[in-house]
Amino acid sequence: MYIGDLHIHSRYSRATSKELTPEHLDLWAEKKGINIVGTGDFTHPAWRAELAEKLEPAEPGLYMLKKEYSLQRPSILGQSSPRFVISGEISSIYKKNGRVRKVHSLILLPSLEAAEVLSRRLEAIGNIHSDGRPILGLDCHDLLAITLEACPDAIYVPAHIWTPHFSLFGAFSGFDTIEECYEELTPQIHALETGLSSDPAMNGRLSALDSFQLISNSDAHSPAKLGREASLFDIPMSYAGLYGAIQRGEGLKGTIEFFPEEGKYHFDGHRKCHLCLSPSQARKYNGICPVCGRKLTTGVLHRIEQLADRDEDFLLPQGRPFENLVPLGEVIASSVGSSPSSVKVSRQYEHLLEELGNEFYILRQAPLEDISHAAGSLTAEGIRHLRDGKVQWRPGYDGEYGTMRLFQSAELDNVEGQMCMTFETANADLSETMGPGIPGAPSVTGDGELAADAVPSANTALSGKAGVSHGSTASREASYETAASNILTVSMPSSALNRDQQQAVESVFPVTAVIAGPGTGKTKTLVSRIEHLMGERGVKPSEITAVTFTNKAADELTQRIRQALPGRRSLNQMQVGTFHSLCYRLLARSGTELSLADRGQAEECAVETIEALELPCTVRQFLTAISLHKAGLSSAQGFAAYMADDSAAETGFTLTQEGADRYQQALECRKLMDFDDLLLNMLRLLEQKAEYRKQHFSYLLVDEFQDISPVQYRLIKAWNKGGRELFVIGDPDQSIYGFRGSDSRCFDRLEQDFPGTSVIRLTAGYRSTPEILSASLFLISRNPGGERRLAAVRPHGDPVRLVTAETSLSESIFIAKEINRIIGGIDMLDAHSQAPGLRDTARSFSDIAVLYRTNHQARLLEQCLQKEGIPYVVAGREDYLDHPAVQGTISFFGALLRQSGIDGDTLELCRKRISPSADYRGLEERFLPRLKKDKPWKLLENWISCLGLGADKSMDTFVCMSYFHKTMEDMLNTLAFGQAHDLKRSGQDSRPSDAVTLMTFHASKGLEFPVVFLYGLKQGILPLKTGKGPMDPYEERRLMYVGMTRARDELILTTSEEPSPFLEELPKDACRDEKAQAPGSGMKQLSLFDFM
Predict the structure, then answer these.
(1) Is the peptide bond before 82 cis (omega within 30 degrees of 0)?
(2) Is residue 676 within 8 Å of 627, Cβ to Cβ?
(3) Which of 471, 627, 965, 999 has fewest C-beta within 10 Å?
């Protein structure tokens, strides 16, 4: 018979002992009597390297420690060297079926080589370097599929299946059935790990688990914790033997268990309020803590009762036997009245091992008289109580281990010191842990109600009676009202429209302007308007054009229309897109020859013009001036005001008509048009062919109307000429693109140009809580236009938080740590580190966004998130896209996609910007056949290798962008037509399925997130101050308003050094002021930031 503990961790996992090395694992496995021990953490490359160095093959699929690494240890009778099996745990945090899921999976592999193969697969998905137990935004179904594909002989076991925060059936983030999690792959799951807070008898209450093998392991985070739980095997000593036992039950003889009451999550409760409740008590309180009004942590017993289809006393006939044990060190400590970690206990522990054998033998089999002779009669009596199940206990709850007693007080009259046996807090007083004297909390004095309810077992209850002190009826009702308000959520009805929305949808005016503040259901109104036109008024889809501001908005609009009107093939005839993408498609259909210049080609034309006319400007300044000129802003004053780097005014550069004409000639010589030419050429086409506009623009709808430029406004008027109805929707207070020519007064201009325009205001806010909306409205009301009014539909939530840090570094570290807290912790340690006064709403990474004013602010944030192991994506158009090698690459692959292929101009550009000596014709032959087959990241990695660009960081970043695209054509189209948040790059060497979003305020337009940070709100940043002075304060205030109203549930404003003056405009009672801890002031895991 062999004992196996297959789920452990290395020192590379968070919150683990530094002694978790192969040497110490070997030492402690031998002390405990464990024959087969897992290595843990096979995904971590440094740990795999250490295992490869220190282990050597033993029986097939198993390893043993090399002799030269063996530590000196006591001679343990009849014990051979422990065997290692390759193992690891994966943490999956993802969304499925509308809920955040956090599930841990145990994986066993037959070799280090198999571990290398699977790790490479996982490395392409997420960061496996920062933690021995990596956090992946990967569906468990997909993890199982990848594991079996990489290694068909792998053993996959859902880990500690009942733990509330991180498990298959967890109350907070798990599933109700195995099938819901693993779907069609459920037959590939053969075993389940029960965890410390449940035992096989409890799991037997679910008939759905009858066909699965139940195994137990310690999940040890230090060597001394090995064997807290283990499995018993009667198998050949090999990986194949393990496989047969775990997958088919062949030779699985039973398990060694913690007492489930001792586990950290057996009962319900709230640790910070010292409240431990049985399931029936928790139901009386409706799952709400009567002390603080927050949600109780649902314990394992309660969760099993929720899913059970059998009575508590049911015994599974074919169930395997199991034993409940307590670690030997704890038995000795209880006997001698010392702490388990004391020198006295350690000496006696080692003496017992030397005299009698390993720990499991002593606890399970050694004659009591031998134990008495070696350690004294009280230790022997304690082990006898243990074997007989005569253990008194108080259950663990909400992360607090249960407290155990092996002796009555009379039995310990001759022993001074500690009377109570606990695991993590040996000196805890039981009555204090119960929380006596707290109004409304169960206490350890009273009428016995709690004692009967809290100890549903034949085991002896703790001395003393327990009951419930309820306090007054009024105060209790008030507590329930507070608790109910904390968990109540209201969302906008999925189908119903409010009165203002209905009026907008059904408007038949020739021109309808809808002013829709943030979260008022703008997209819903737009979709319903289109649905109403086709469904109620019989408008043909081919007569409708809907213009959006981003590609993402266009895709969402199309998808929602198809959902509203399923099965209508004619929907394909409706036009939906951005101004530029629509113009590109319409020009192509008209027969116009199109070859759109990429950034590199546009820069070549700009360089040619600047050199020919000896213009005193940079290429960037010139192209910005050209774009503003074509957008309808041609004055030097307007240009200087909106230049991104404000350097035009300093050089005295003003774009002349000659410069604009010369640049246009350079484009035409290459048979190119630039991005802005799409709109201008569309206008020319409409002037030439009046009948063309009637075909598609009878009903024109324009989203985000406040962000249009002068030339886009001209285009709207041209499209609408001869049309039936124009419907525009937007919000002047969200006009944030003045540097492109947008004007917050556009609605006023529309009314002037179209007298009789029907103006409708949407005034019900469905997105943000009243706290967020109130603070935002107070800020924007400082702009001209008087007090803004929006009525929040949602119930009250958390206050807006204003966090002040000493430095940008402190601010960035705070955000990384706070994200960790908000998602409920990325490991079990963090799950119990909630900040006081903040609710415990579990979030996924994708629920969180960090917004900032300028792209360069993100650099420090990225470093902190990387060090904390938090997956993230960056949205927006960044400087790496302007790098010569990136531009040359875009030009090369763009030319490949054209029928004409690589022309002379492209060749010359690639030679200038990438390499003058590369064989681009040869590269054309190499990449052309793969262009539409391979993923963009594969093409780019091969391209980088061919051209020796491996040291180019901009190209590495470009690859990180490519993960978000299925084809090279899709990626290049996004680069050409996408707006800021259409462009994304991963913060890792893969595309995370669940990640925090980093973006500028501008890029966040049109998006929303449950949790939003506004980062870097300080002097000179908001409002932005350039060399010439501050930007337009009204637009900068609108920009902050946009950022604040991206938040649905939680808004955290952070600042450092000198706060932004906009923060001073917020009313004092609108925000809760907080101070961010400075690095080194007791923050956990500060070593993560040692690079600072």
Answers:
(1) no
(2) yes
(3) 471
Report d(CA 109, CA 86) in Å as an integer: 5
Q: Considering the entire predicted model, what is its pTM?
A: 0.72
- How far is it, in rounded angstroms, from Cα 243 to Cα 291? 49
Reading the block at residue 629, the tokens are 């000129």
CB neighbour list of residue 998: distance below 8 Å, 6 or more residues apart: 849, 850, 852, 858, 861, 862, 865, 872, 873, 874, 875, 987
Residue-wise pLDDT tens digits, 1014-1055: 999 999 999 998 766 667 899 999 999 999 999 999 999 999
Q: CB atoms < 10 A from the CB of 1069, how many?
A: 9
DSSP states of 842-908: ---GGGEEEEESSGGGHHHHHHHHHHHT--EEEES--GGGGSHHHHHHHHHHHHHHSTT-S-HHHHH
Strand, coil or helix: 319: coil
Q: List Cβ neighbours of 319 (8 Å cut-off, separation of 6 or more).
A: 200, 201, 204
Whether 742 and 1038 have beta carbons less than 8 Å apart is answered as no
Q: Is 974 helix (H, G, I), strand (E, B) or coil?
A: helix
For residues 127 and 19, give the distance between their C-alpha atoms in angstroms, rounded to a whole number: 24
Distance CA 809, CA 838 (A): 23
How far are the Cα atoms of 477, 502, 626, 639, 981 from residue 553, in angstroms, in the given order? Answer: 46, 22, 27, 29, 10
Q: Flag residues of the chain having pLDDT under 50.
A: 77-78, 414-494, 635-651, 1082-1092
* DSSP letter, residue 617: S
What's the token pair of residue 191?
Answer: 């075993």
Q: For the segment 944-976, what is each residue's pLDDT rounded down to a tens digit? A: 999 999 899 999 999 999 999 999 999 998 888
Collapsing DSSP states into helix, strand and coil, what is residue 394? strand
Residue 1027, burial from CB neighbour count under 10 angstroms (0-12, 13-18, 19+) = exposed
